[in-house]
DNA sequence: CGATTTTGACCAGCGC
DNA sequence: GCGCTGGTCAAAATCG
């Protein structure tokens, strides 16, 4: 089966408390088959923008691949702006009702009910609130391995940018009442709600979601003094999609096993582990369900081979985002999993 | 028996 | 002020 695979990065601005089902999902990065060549020539890390996070922010790079029509329909979208100056700017675009209003015209790939969406949109215009920016990274792909590994890599990059590398959200204005950590939502096609990410979570609440038959679960990192939270809910329009929203940054390494080697057939699990500071646990059953689900189609232009496994050479060369052969782990002090994706100079700045 | 989940109650923010 | 909703608390239940 030939599928158009792609990575979507959604700029979801506005209501922090709205259901994912209310999100005006809109593709700004949608790879058509004839764009694959372009992507291949970029390299995965290049695509993610981690070769130079300051001058080439992740999302700016991604935005460079966006669908032109979206550029035209969404001038307020920070990703479509040519004035992006830094990741800081990108990620701190204030959420205003205007900027969060996203046309449904190009969102058919995500929403099956445009008419309904118009109503939702109208609702959103009415109810949109000022809130911390929420970046929703939407990995539109049927392959679970692709979802897990790539989205986690992206997540790690984002967390590295804001946490380790010093890019943080601007403090909220004083007139804003409650301060929140930056939040990042990830949409993953999965059959289980709570995706294994290497950290230990304790569920502390569950709420019914308005206009959705699926409840939202609230989890907190079990590590003392780590106040990272996450919300897990299913997408109303597509129940097969799990939306995980992370809030805050872990103040500790992943509590589980050390990193596996990025070798051979373990690549998928390895990158999953490496990508978010999340070494594998002792592979619970649902972990296998996610990470070892057989590939049924070509997954992505993003250096996944035809058999669905990551290109080992690419990984080896791009691992540290430096030209030439990537330095072996012994060349850097162990920064935990961070070293897997960040250039060495960034690590030194920690 | 400690860790985790469940679940109803409570609180805060927001719109009307 | 009131009602609605999202988010959190905490006691009870369940699990390993």
UniProtKB/TrEMBL annotation:
Belongs to the WRKY group II-c family. One of its GO terms (molecular function) is DNA-binding transcription factor activity. This is WRKY domain-containing protein. Residues 72-124 are annotated as: Disordered. It is found in: Nucleus. Keywords: DNA-binding, Nucleus, Transcription, Transcription regulation. It comes from Gossypium stocksii. GO terms for cellular component: nucleus.
